[in-house]
């Protein structure tokens, strides 16, 4: 854990208004800076960090180990102008030269998210100068591909033949900037310390402090990523059957809000059956959509549910195994339901319905068809009653 | 430094070994050599007098001929002599500039006036010892050696640097003005700055 004084150079040019990094590039940078600050201070509490803006080459915060000083200025940075890379680096060099900790190893971390306009000779001279003064530099290029080769050359000159203290990290547009930095050498020091396991850049992301229970945070993170992957795969496969997909959500949604204790059990059963039926049938997305959308607005009674489900059952019945399999997955349903407004995933009705689905998954298709026939006869009986 | 025995004698020159031992007081972890070609080679040139002729340990300049050594000591030192062993050729440095107690010295302020400037000549075996003036070097905690040029080669090569002198001891801390409190009162310790950060004990 060597003593280090780091100057972080922030790109505050007009290109930082871009929203390709959520929410804006500037915000992503701010999160990344806070991540780096905590990593440095954690690895050695006597490390110093300072802030500098590249657009005007101004030192925003002198080298300090006080988190408050850095953060108060960090969130007040103006976005204006274009970056002057060489001037910024020279000012950072000067700030490091006058640092209080004379024994600290100097380091510069630069964020570049706008096109680089620089004289190549001056650029190379700057690299040589940094090498002579033994200043390590880490360059993070985000959202900008044009200047990548220039920076690679820069880093090669600074590193020389044997050194590997300077790094170039490129982050593509749309990625999460702090998360992309976690696994880089900027955060991870040589002995692999860096941040503790399970640290998420968006701390408190799951409502728990990752420091209190890093294993839980890690587990949550992994399961979230898996979910995302599964969802993306499913949505990719079942684009043509979107209408049918909407059947189970709206069914359970409307029934979820309909808390009639007396008939709840039967309601759930029928919901489950409805889900099954809609799963076994084909698309005809538009007609289904129209029916479904009219459904919740008119009435949410149980008979109307079954009526409508029989209608959908009478439609053409194609059977794509993969689609059925994906919809049979209760976990997938859970996630789809979670995304709908007004649906409380944890409400008993929904949970019971999903359990039903799980149970019915184990039965062969024959049983479901039998149920369909029974339901059909029930429905027709009821229709007759109403008439 | 030369003694009068026959050429094949094994006598160790004990007087010189005893004198040229300031290398032991150098804070090697924080010793830095700027513009060296191989990282860490600058530390190897500061060694014992009887190892001075070891040709395997060398520091070579990387970009141009300059070499700058920033040498902190473990205490205060009184320096009286300097010895530089290089190649018997153009890569030998021709000037050395010395500064005492300027730890932030780097290449741009090394161009200015030094505390002492010494012109060097070829010395491949360590026979020459240059006198260091006592005016600036009687109480040194940090020494800076700057070799700006050599006798004509593209890079400068140095095999050994010897420092002669005496160790004065660890620097005593500054005078502390202390106030003793029988019972601390909060009103005596007002802190204005609300932004004082949290310091965790880890």
From TrEMBL, chain A:
One of its GO terms (biological process) is proteasome-mediated ubiquitin-dependent protein catabolic process. Residues 5-186 form the VWFA domain. This is 26S proteasome non-ATPase regulatory subunit 4. Coiled coil: none annotated. GO terms for cellular component: cytosol; nucleus; proteasome regulatory particle, base subcomplex. Keywords: Proteasome. The keyword Glycoprotein does not apply. Residues 364-387 have a biased composition (Basic and acidic residues). GO terms for molecular function: polyubiquitin modification-dependent protein binding. Pfam families: UIM, VWA_2. The keyword Lipid metabolism does not apply. Gene3D superfamilies: 6.10.250.380, 6.10.300.40, von Willebrand factor, type A domain. Residues 238-259, 297-318 have a biased composition (Polar residues). Residues 236-259, 281-318, 349-387 are annotated as: Disordered.
From TrEMBL, chain B:
SUPFAM superfamilies: Galactose-binding domain-like (SSF49785). Pfam families: PITH. GO terms for cellular component: cytoplasm; nucleus. Residues 11-183 form the PITH domain. Belongs to the PITHD1 family. This is PITH domain-containing protein.
